[in-house]
Design a protein that fits this description.
The chain is an alpha/beta fold. It has eleven helices and ten strands.
């Protein structure tokens, strides 16, 4: 395919469309660079833009120009290889030893750097979260009157000019004109017939006074017909609007992080990067999603965003304390019939003896019947422990709404995140 590129200078902000076309054309290369950037970034700079490089060979464009054409004779000063009449071979274009080839290094000539440009924050996050969504998001009844939609609710005789119904108003005016003119037209027709009958009489029998009277009556009736207004304020109709409560797709995401002593600093950094990705994803794509942050060791606490990511509190491990707290918060503030409920949990899998069974029972009997989706990531390079095995039984009972993945190192965070929140074709609306 041949591409024609418009190189004319554009006014300010007029090249936005061209930029979007460029991003779409090289989407595969940009997405690969974005994935590499996500894996190497620290927690504090996950939401800034990114500098992206594309190999020059992948953005090469055909160039149209006038060639010299025909046979040419040239003089090459300092030439020691060719004599007059020799033919110079055409370059083979394979980037042999004399040049830089496809932008590579050589001992002579010049090479080409990769084409680099910067993605804005919005563009970067768009590529990071492309194709992701909250699974099984449903419409829920409205919990308050804040979310309403103004819908048409019939017609009224009073209203503002911007809501006037022209069609209905003209119909009312037409009906009124017909109703008002009908008896006048009948009287006019009778007067015209009477005048015609009077004028057909013999001149001896005619009544001049009656003719004058009939003509005056006809003139009066015609003026009355003309006096009927084309449209009157009585005819005007206005669209009425009423506030109608709308189903809400509001949701709450519970972020549950293990901060026990078995979680090393590296494990905690990986968990924080996972939750930061989740936070940015929800912030970008959803307006009606609240976040609840829960940290736990032997005891669980609901904390704010800053404390969740930066507090250094630690201790033993009782995972059920976090699940119990989440269940209490749901009962108190987020009833399942009004909210889409999601939980994302990160842990190293280490848990107190016999507590994993309690976690399983809490999930099966209390939490999972209310939840839309539960995502569990276990951050460990070692064999799975009892918590993972108990969660496997939960996943077997709720295969569509319970997902669990393992993260070994930072390079697994983004692929696992995309796997957990990838768009599903059978998404419920």
């Amino acid at each position: 395919m041949t591409y024609f590129i418009d190189r004319r200078p554009n006014a300010k902000h007029k090249s936005a469309v061209n930029r979007q076309r460029f991003l779409e054309r090289y989407r595969k290369h940009i997405k690969r660079s974005v994935e590499e950037a996500v894996n190497r970034r620290s927690i504090t700079d996950m939401e800034r833009g990114e500098k992206v490089s594309i190999p020059t060979k992948d953005i090469s464009e055909p160039v149209f120009q006038h060639g010299p054409g025909g046979a040419r004779q040239i003089v090459s000063p300092g030439n020691k290889e060719f004599l007059e009449g020799d033919k110079i071979r055409r370059p083979n274009g394979q980037g042999g030893g004399d040049g830089a080839g496809e932008g590579g290094a050589s001992n002579q000539g010049e090479g080409d750097d990769e084409f680099a440009f910067t993605l804005s924050r919005e563009e970067f996050l768009e590529f990071v979260f492309d194709g992701l969504e909250l699974p099984h998001l449903q419409r829920k009844p409205l919990k308050s009157l804040e979310e309403i939609k103004m819908v048409r609710a019939g017609l009224a005789r009073d209203g503002v000019p911007s809501r006037i119904s022209i069609t209905r108003s003209m119909r009312e005016a037409y009906a009124r004109r017909i109703a008002m003119r009908a008896p006048i037209k009948r009287a006019l027709k009778e007067a015209q017939e009477a005048l015609a009958a009077e004028e057909r009489k013999d001149p001896v029998l005619r009544n001049p006074a009656r003719i004058v009277e009939l003509k005056a009556e006809i003139e009066r009736l015609e003026k009355r017909i003309e006096g009927v207004p084309f449209i009157d304020t009585y005819d005007l109709r206005y669209h009425q609007l009423s506030a109608q409560p709308q189903p809400s797709s509001q949701a709450v995401m519970f972020c549950v992080m293990d901060v026990s002593g078995s979680m090393t600093q590296n494990h905690k950094d990986i968990a924080k990067r996972f939750f930061l990705l989740l936070y940015l994803f929800l912030e970008k794509h959803y307006e009606k999603v609240e976040l609840v942050f829960v940290r736990h060791h032997t005891a669980a606490r609901e904390v704010n965003e800053e404390e969740f990511f930066y507090s250094r509190e630690t201790g033993g491990t009782i995972v059920s304390s976090a699940l119990t707290l989440v269940n209490k918060i749901i009962e108190k503030r987020y009833p399942a019939e009004q909210w889409n409920l999601y939980i994302a949990q990160a842990s190293d899998g280490d848990n107190w003896d016999d507590d994993s069974n309690i976690c399983r029972d809490l999930l099966v009997k209390q939490l999972m019947p209310q939840l839309q989706y539960y995502a569990y990531v276990e951050i460990t390079p070692h064999e799975h422990q009892s918590l993972w095995h108990e969660y496997e039984t939960v996943a077997a009972q709720f295969p569509e709404r319970f997902a669990m993945r393992q993260i070994v190192d930072a390079g697994d965070i983004y692929p696992v995140f995309r796997e957990l929140f990838k768009r599903r074709l059978s998404q419920e609306q």
